[in-house]
Amino acid sequence: MTLAIFFGCTFIAFGPALGLFLFTIARDPLRIIILIAGAFFWLVSLLLSSLIWFIAVKASNPLDEPLQKGLLIFGVMFSVLLQEAFRFLYYKLLRKAIEGLVALSEDGCSPISIQQMAYVAGVGFGLMSGAFSMINLLADTLGPGTVGIHGDSQLYFLTSAFMTMVLIFLHTFWGILFFHGCEHQHWWEITAVIVMHLAVSGLTFCNPLYMGSLVPSYLLMATAATWAYLLSGGSAQNLQRFLLCLWSGASPQLES
């Protein structure tokens, strides 16, 4: 049973992201480099926020429960802001990289657009975030022990896997929205990303009322996905044509 839980939660949390990686990133070495660099930037932000939270906890009274809870909330919110700050730094780095690629290319064009970089960077942020969110839980699923034996929810591992999946997707969509806002100086788009990130992180404090965190998070994911799709040049007409092609079994044709 423990193996079934392990593989089930693993594929729920990382299966869709693995599909994105294999079909849209793995064939391009430049995209792989951008993804790994994005994961590294997220990792550095986590390291710095963890260090600040560790110092704050050690400098406070461990017996003061309200203070410790307040420090936990502070740590989560500070971590979110630091992640978004590093996302901005990564955008600046990639913008410099595009200028270098254009200077080196023979035709004066970059081999990858800023929109593609935003998508790949978002996947990198999401994969590293999901790995750190789920890796210890996956190790616990192998046992020994039985989930919920003392009356706790038996859906802990399953809901954690679904929450990890939504966070990976959200980071992907946030990357697209954030880079678009930086590229066109639409600061309200950047603000919206930060607010959504803070909201999703704050919703985790609703646990173990899992529906109170999962349902709003998936609604926010749907909103961010629609927004990112429209900013990337998508439209309802294009989506309708794509679905009609899938339904009829024909290959989508590009208009001349």
Order of helices and strands: HHHHHHHH
Structural class by secondary-structure content? mainly alpha
Largest sheet: none
The percentage helix is over 70%
Give the number of helices.
8
Description of the structure:
- The chain is mostly helical.
- It has 8 helices and no strands.
- It is globular, with a radius of gyration of 20 Å.
- 27% of the residues are buried.
- The mean pLDDT is 86.
Element layout with pairings:
Elements: H1 2-24, H2 29-58, H3 65-104, H4 114-141, H5 156-184, H6 187-203, H7 210-231, H8 236-248
Which structural traits does this protein have?
256 residues, 79% helix, globular, mainly alpha, 8 helices
Provide a compact summary of the structure.
The chain is mainly alpha-helical and 256 residues long. The radius of gyration is 20 Å and the shape is globular.
